[in-house]
Specification:
CATH architecture of the largest domain: 3-Layer(aba) Sandwich
Number of strands: 14
Strand content: 15-25%
Largest sheet: 6 strands, parallel
Order of helices and strands: HHEHEHEHEEHEHEHEHEEHEEHEEH
Helix content: 25-40%
CATH superfamily of the largest domain: Response regulator
CATH topology of the largest domain: Rossmann fold
Shape: globular
Length: 385
């Protein structure tokens, strides 16, 4: 699939093929001619074949980021593989979380998209506006919380991958200090920082987590600077909630350890890579497309994790002790069958007060509103978040 520009959003492989054929005939001194009339039976069969469903994706980063957007684009490719010529997909990359996103969504709608995916939190309000003006189009918003009759939300339980990474970090940190490069201080990211810390504390209760915020999802220079700052503060294992491989590569340059995030980042720095907490968007994207094709699509919200095959931790480095790998595998199995809960009390907040009572299990409403650090995380949640 060749990426579309914002001016030429939707193209079909068939159109490109016809253009190439016309050029070839012209080069031979021949004129491209319309195909001969098909037999009535063939014509009837052709007329009965439905037009492909046009699906468009808006990405916040480049498809080659190796992380978040790369994972979403793998999901788009899975749609093409699953449904073949029943669908036509396109994407626009590096769409800012601003008014410009609204323009891109309107462009997609005007060019015939019937199912539109917006793949970052900041697209929520722009997508709501466009959805209101195009009730016949189905809109899907990743990581948001607002819906409409023709707009639903979908998300992945990234905190599950963060917790499993934390188990490894807690074992592999010799300093007892781990660091996190945070993107934007919304509940999703704060929840991941806390979950990573809970995982680390399950191995080493004395572990400390330092955080540096970059206030962007994808900015390799800022991510590099933040990672170096954490190393300078004594962190010897780094984690991230940003989209590039910069944190892992910075760890490698400093002979420290780190994780991949959203996609398998082993190749960027295998000597420093402990594991990658990944998202597999394919199951959800296939489900949503199938519903759109079959006319069963409906609004609402979906939040999938290990249980549904959306979250995993992969490519665990051989340097991680076998017993730690076994512990991760046990947690993964428990998340899959529901026997293990990450957010189960007692959990103490950074201020020393209990945020979850002993034996209590956080529900999705609680998890969706996490705006505090747990005990062991240093610093303050940025004001106003």
């Amino acid at each position: 699939m060749i990426p579309t520009t914002r001016r030429t959003l939707l193209r079909t492989a068939a159109g490109a093929t016809l253009a190439a054929a016309a050029t070839l005939l012209a080069g031979c001194g021949k004129k491209a001619e319309a195909p001969a009339a098909a037999a009535p039976a063939s014509a009837a069969a052709s007329a009965a074949a439905p037009a492909p469903l046009k699906i468009a994706f808006a990405y916040v980063g480049p498809v080659g980021d190796g992380g978040w957007t790369f994972a979403h684009d793998n999901g788009r490719k899975a749609i093409e593989k699953e449904f073949g010529n029943r669908v036509v997909t396109s994407f626009v990359e590096q769409v800012p979380e601003s008014a410009d996103a609204e323009r891109v969504f309107r462009d997609m709608a005007s060019q015939g998209a019937q199912l539109i995916f917006g793949t970052t939190f900041g697209y929520m309000e722009p997508m709501l506006k466009v959805a209101a003006d195009h009730p016949a189009i189905k809109f899907e918003h990743a990581t948001g919380y607002k819906t409409a009759a023709n707009m639903r939300t979908y998300d992945s339980r990234t905190y599950e991958g963060a917790y499993m990474a934390g188990i490894i970090a807690g074992k592999m940190s010799k300093a007892g200090v781990v660091g996190v490069v945070g993107s934007i201080p919304i509940p999703e990211v704060i929840r991941n920082i806390n979950s990573f810390t809970l995982g680390a504390q399950s191995v080493n209760p004395k572990i400390k987590t330092k955080v540096v915020w970059v206030n962007e999802w994808f900015n390799p220079p800022k991510e590099t600077e933040a990672a170096q700052s954490l190393i300078n503060q004594g962190a010897d294992v780094l984690f991230q909630n940003t989209d590039s491989s910069a944190v892992l590569q910075t760890a490698a340059k400093n002979k420290k350890l780190a994780f991949g995030w959203d996609s398998d980042m082993t190749a960027y720095a295998p000597e420093a890579h402990l594991a990658s907490a990944i998202i597999n968007w394919a199951p959800y994207y296939i489900k949503a497309t199938k519903e759109a094709l079959e006319g069963t699509w409906s609004t609402g919200g979906v939040w999938w994790g290990v249980k549904e095959g959306a979250i995993d931790i992969v490519s665990i480095n051989a340097m991680v002790p076998a017993e730690t790998q076994e512990q991760v595998a046990k947690v993964k199995a428990g998340l899959k069958d529901g026997s293990f809960q990450i957010w189960k009390g007692p959990i103490i907040g950074q201020d020393g007060k209990e945020v979850l009572a002993a034996g209590a299990v956080a529900d999705d409403k609680f998890l969706g509103g996490v705006n505090f650090y747990i005990k062991g995380v240093e610093g303050k949640v940025p004001a106003g978040k």
